[in-house]
Design brief:
By secondary structure, this protein is α/β, with parallel strands linked by helices. The protein has twelve helices and 20 strands. It has a ten-stranded mixed sheet with strand order 9-7-5-2-10-1-11-15-19-20, with helices on both faces. Strands 14, 16, 17 and 18 form a four-stranded mixed sheet that branches. A two-stranded antiparallel sheet has the order 3-4. Helix 2 packs across helix 7, helix 4 crosses helix 5 and helix 4 packs parallel to helix 6. Bound molecules: guanosine-5'-diphosphate (GDP), 6-O-phosphoryl inosine monophosphate and magnesium ion. Magnesium ion binds next to loops.
Length: 421
């Protein structure tokens, strides 16, 4: 059986920490989409590490970590990540597996990402510029190179063919970038990748499931960044939702059991695009400061605002969320008053639905006020010790969503997670 853990907002909900926490309950931790645009922060023995492509189960040495076919993989980033993991005393070669169907990001994908953003001018997506969009375009356009191609003697020829195709595109966009240094690193990364266990991911995972092993599928980005259901075009280029697990790992829908959704106690977004509950004031700044809301991949300041139940409700519906983890509740500790968005007013009418085009309509969030708990909750271990005001806030949200908030995260540390029974 497979459980899924994914983000319900616009990413950075704290998925990495929660996967690391739950990993002991599983045999395999598998990434099914996204690539180095992700930044999943973990604290291991009090030391911080940010993972981009390696599943967040890597610090549990008896667990299998699989990079699935739905991922787009950057060999250069992978090598750097592996070195960082190694500095924690972990032998990553032992338990890291890569699907042969995983698509590769090549240096010109990154150049194309830059060229595409530049061409968009004011309408830029705010991409992480890691080559994600162009790599997925080559997948659906049936041009991409895959990890399994590494083992083919014609790999370099195939690479040159693809690079030339990209070069023509870049030329037509009048975009010039010297990729010589990237290319050198890329081929070093490709050589480095040869040491890994490159597997037929779909047979690999289904065989293990048949043997009774448990899989935790780790999502990247968030549901509102999903290419189909997110705030298009301000989204990433993959299916970040639970359905992506089937195509991104090769498992059938009947194998999926729990869908664990992660949300912050408030909301953030990095990059451009609609964000109805955004706070462009001192409260937003306070959330950013206390929550240390700066991108784990790009270092950009994250936009901050109140929790948006219209968007969360939508994410629960699309994903079939069965359990919720609420992270960063401690960030709200000092706030006098809190707000929760319960509906949108669009053209004078109240709605609890996500509109087709969130940029073309003026959305006014309808906010319900809550009294802050004004207590340091970061040391609390048991749900019954949570202040009454915090309990009220949590209960209101889970009743609105109709899905139970089963865990509250009250700090970045591995042990800061309270189970609500
Ligand atoms: P991910 O991409 O979903 O894995 O999330 P990121 O790692 O990008 O961002 C989450 C940030 O919040 C990281 O810096 C975490 O260390 C931190 N974090 C996670 N959970 C908590 C929490 O409950 N409280 C606080 N204060 N920080 C947290
Ligand atoms: P994790 O897994 C937050 C955002 C970018 C940009 C848009 C498209 O750490 O939650 P892309 O590089 O995919 O072309 O960027 O998506 N984005 C993320 N925002 N967390 C992420 O990952 C993100 N990955 C991409 O900022 O707005
Ligand atoms: Mg992140």
């Amino acid at each position: 059986m497979v459980d899924v853990l994914l983000g319900l907002q616009w990413g950075d909900e704290g998925k990495g920490k929660i996967v690391d926490y739950f990993a002991p309950n599983y045999d395999i931790i598998a990434r099914f989409q996204g690539g180095p645009n992700a930044g999943h922060t973990l604290y291991v023995n009090g030391n911080k590490i940010v993972l981009h492509q390696i599943p967040s189960g890597i610090f549990h040495e008896d667990k299998i970590n699989l990079i699935g076919n739905g991922v787009v993989l950057d060999a250069v980033t992978l090598r750097r990540e592996c070195e960082a993991v190694k500095s924690f005393g972990i032998d990553y070669r032992k338990n890291l597996y890569i699907s042969e169907r995983t698509h590769l990001i090549i240096p010109t994908h990154r150049a194309l990402d830059k060229a595409s953003e530049l061409a968009k001018g004011n309408e830029k997506i705010g991409s992480t510029l890691k080559g994600i969009g162009p790599a997925y375009m080559d997948k659906t356009g049936r041009n991409g190179l895959r990890v399994g191609d590494l083992l083919d003697k014609n790999f370099t020829t195939q690479y040159i063919k693809l690079r030339l195709k990209h070069q023509r595109l870049l030329d037509s966009m009048n975009f010039n970038e010297d990729i010589t240094a990237w290319e050198e690193e890329f081929f070093e990364g490709i050589e480095f990748m040869r040491q890994f266990k490159i597997v037929n991911g779909e047979y690999f995972i289904n065989d293990k499931i048949k043997q009774g092993m448990k899989v935790l599928a780790e999502g990247a980005q968030g549901s509102m960044l999903d290419v189909d259901f997110g705030t298009f075009p301000f989204v990433t280029s993959s299916n970040t939702i639970s359905a992506g697990v089937c195509t991104g790992l090769g498992v059938a829908p009947q194998k999926i059991r729990d869908v664990i959704g992660v949300t912050k106690a408030y909301c953030t977004r990095v990059g451009s695009g609609p964000f109805p509950t955004e706070l462009n004031d001192s409260t937003g700044e306070e959330l950013r400061k206390i929550g240390n809301e700066f991108g784990a991949t790009t270092g950009r300041p994250r936009r901050c605002g109140w929790i948006d139940l219209v968007a969360l409700n939508y994410a629960c519906m699309i994903n079939g969320v069965t359990k919720i983890v609420m992270t960063k509740a401690d960030v709200l500790d000092t706030f006098e008053d809190l707000k929760v968005c319960t509906s949108y007013t669009i053209n004078g009418e109240s709605s609890k639905e996500i509109p087709f085009q969130m940029m073309r309509v003026a959305i006014v969030p309808e906010l319900q006020g809550f009294t802050g708990w004004k207590t340091d909750i970061s040391g609390i271990k048991s749900a019954k010790d949570l202040p009454e005001a915090a309990q009220k806030y949590i209960t209101f949200i889970d009743q609105y969503l109709g899905v139970k908030i089963s865990w509250i995260s009250n700090g970045p540390g591995r042990d800061q997670l309270i189970e609500i029974i």
